[in-house]
Amino acid sequence: MSPTLYASLLSFFGWLIRGSLMAGILVLLILTLQFLLKNKLEARWKYLLWLPVAIRLVLPWAPESSLSLYNVFSLKAVVPVHQMTQDFSEAGRAGGAAVQGEHDVQLDTGGISEIPALSHESGTVQKRGIWWNQIKQQGFIIGLMLVWLVGVLFLGAKTIYDQLRLKRVLRTSRPIETRFILALFEETKQRLGIDRNVRFVASERIPGPAVIGFRKPAIVISPSLLVTLQKEQLQYILGHEFAHIQRRDVAMNWVIHIILILHWFNPLLWVAVRKARQAQEMACDACVLDRMGPQQNKAYGQTIIHVLEYVSGNYHQPGVAGLSATHKEMKRRLIMIKQFNKKSYRLSILGMGMILALGSVTLVNPKESSAASVPAAEVVQKQKQEGKTVTLSKAETEMLQKIISQSMTKDIKLKDVGLLNSDEVSEGVTVTSVDEKYEVGFFRKGGRGVSIRSTVSLDTIQKADQDKALQKLQQLYPAKTYTFDPEVEFFQSYDDVWKQFGHASYRLKGKDFFIQLHDESVGIEKKAAAPQLKPDQYEITINANELDAQLKKKASDAVKTILNQDFHATSATLSPMGFEQTPAWTLNGDGVSLWMEASGKVKGMNLKARDQQAVKTDKEIPEQEARKVVAEAVKKLYNVDISEYTMTWDSVPFPGYRLESGGIETGKQVITVALDANKKVVAINSYSIPR
Fold first, then answer.
1. Cα-Cα-Cα-Cα dihedral sign, residues 390, 393, 394, 399
2. How far is 243 from 665, CA to CA, in rounded Å?
């Protein structure tokens, strides 16, 4: 290796070590700030707060400043590589000068020199000796460089292997073609403002809802999770994944991962990456809630919990971004979801101020000629900035009052001062009413609409409408006593483009139940007041012991017949199921989940450990034997002869056999069955796909 090349490598390694040390200090500072501020910082800014760390690690050069935080640290004492590099470079230049001097002497002789061969050899030895002695003196640094290089090569190879494996899984995934689901997919895509081409596929080999790729993104969902989702839950999940696409999270994950490969030796950066991925998920949660409305916080949080019952853990691959979390992270995430509202955007100024303050003291190098430094406590103090209030103009006040009057049956007087809670482009403002019972949000620029949110008294809903909701609940499950909480969540939005309000939503809730009430008395059609109960927005949870004895017996008999084991339900929840949104019970107990209509008709069941027990390919059991076992199980549970059904191997909703009858024009009847290696049923489901 030549002295110049070695000096270049040593210089690069010195820059790498110094940058890693500076980033480590910055990571500690950010962790301290997050601990001090806790829930005072909005989710998206918790994520952006890690941006200076990435910038610090890729900066090839930075100006010196007396304000640099690193002035309080002696980096040369901790990382002497930089000084050693300079010493080595000077020695290399000295050796090069000696050789060049010898070459000049030879040229002066006109090329007929009688210089002995020994003189040439001694010059060469002198050159080699100068830089080789330096290498021996820095043997420890060479060892570190080799260890670092081995780590980089290992992680780089692992990344390539993981990506190739991920691409193979994506190629073998099954496109989702159900019209109802695709319609919901496109609706959510438009709602999130995504104009890119995005694929939607199903695969059990990728753990959970996720986005793969950033140039040609694809949303992947587990089929076994898909069949358990209600329409509203699927929309939340899709919204979360589209938020990843909109925010370019996969591309950012690649940048972070490449940085981590180069700085794999720094444990603080592993912590930073883990925290950044957690903050990324919370930022996507906030994005979804901001687009879909804060009145849906509880339902969104319940969806997150539901997903984690099927998928647990984090995604470590850079090419994947998904709806994931460990159980330890879930508490913080649910708290953020519960507390999220439009008003929280006032803290964006605090977030921007913190990032600017961090950048000003950490993205500059220490000034070697000055010992002056800025105490960390003063830096933190400068970062604590308050939100900015704005005075509404007369035109804005009149506009808001006019819009509100179109929806409300009573006058709502707004305050003259609002809180600026968005960026300079849209200037989002939140204004509270004088009685502080209502919050009205609007954008001063861009014309993106007005939203009204409040927690209203139950008395504001007419008794007839309350009775209608109670009647629906009692119709669904008459054995329970329903008492509404005194407060009801209310939300409504006004679209500046269509010049109309969306349907108002009221969520009436009580102990172990909720039901959604929609007032369709607003809008262009100006319908008379006619509150509607959406069939896909209710949930009733009871103690399994209270479940009707006949239903429990049917469930127990079905499990005994198909799975050949006893079944005692420990939990029971009534909610809409399937494309038809039929009221159905979900029963859990003894390692089994079972679905049955309120009438007692069993729709499906599975062992919770089926993923570990079920065969993964159709080559493990001969086709004729598999068809015989499947036919017997379908006949016992559904009293259906499968002779008119086509049977294929599929991974939707889980690896197993898919039986279909009917077609696109008439609608399809679908039955899915999974078997273990002993040809025992471990999962079976039946559902209809409307035409």
1. negative
2. 35
Chain length of the chain: 691
What is the full DSSP assignment across 176-203?
---HHHHHHHHHHHHHTT--S--EEEE-
What is the pLDDT at residue 524? 32
Closest CA relative to residue 155, chosen from 242, 252, 266 = 266
For 103-221, strand residue ranges (E) read 174-175, 199-202, 210-212, 218-221
pLDDT of residue 625: 93
**Burial of residue 197, with CB atoms counted within 10 A of its CB: 0-12 exposed, 13-18 middle, 19 or more buried:** exposed
Q: Who's near 381: CB < 8 A, 6+ residues apart?
A: none
Give the three-state DSSP class for 400. Answer: helix
Q: Strand 320-322 vs strand 210-212: parallel, antiparallel, or unpaired?
A: antiparallel
Nearest Cα residue to 130 out of 102, 89, 100: 89
Whole-angstrom distance, CA of residue 453 vs CA of residue 337: 16
Could you give the dihedral angle defined by the CA atoms of residues 12, 17, 22 and 27, in that order, rounded to the nearest 10 degrees?
A: 120
Contacts of 503 (CB under 8 A, 6+ apart): 492, 518, 519, 520, 522, 523
pLDDT of res. 295 = 65
Residue reference for tokens 């390692």: 591
Residues ≥6 apart with Cβ < 8 Å to 611 = 204, 224, 654
Three-state DSSP class for 416? coil
Cα 354 versus chain centre, distance: 23
Residue 513 phi/psi, 5-degree rounding, is -165, 160
CB 623 within 8 A of CB 684: no
How far is the CA of 301 from the CAs of 240, 343, 445, 604, 667, in angstroms?
12, 19, 31, 26, 33
pLDDT value of position 534: 61
Secondary structure string (H, E, C) spanning 285-329: HHHHHHHHCHHHHHHHHHHHHHHHCCCCECCCCCCEEECCECHHH
User: What are the tokens at 37?
Assistant: 């501020």
Query: pTM (2 decimals)?
Result: 0.51
The pLDDT of residue 622 is 92
Residue 581 corresponds to which tokens in the numbers above?
């949104």
Backbone angles phi, psi at 269, to 5 degrees: -75, -30
Flag residues of the chain having pLDDT under 50: 77-137, 345-346, 369-386, 522-530
Predicted local confidence at residue 383, as pLDDT: 34
Task: Classify 653 as helix, strand or coil.
Answer: coil
Output phi, psi for 120, to 5 deg.
-65, -45
Q: Measured at the alpha carbon of residue 289, what is the angle toward residues 287 and 290, in degrees to the nearest 5?
A: 65
* Spatial contact of 364 and 379, defined as CB atoms under 8 Å apart: no
Handedness of CA 643, 649, 655, 661 (dihedral sign): negative
- Angle at 219 (CA atoms; ends 658, 197), nearest 5 degrees: 115
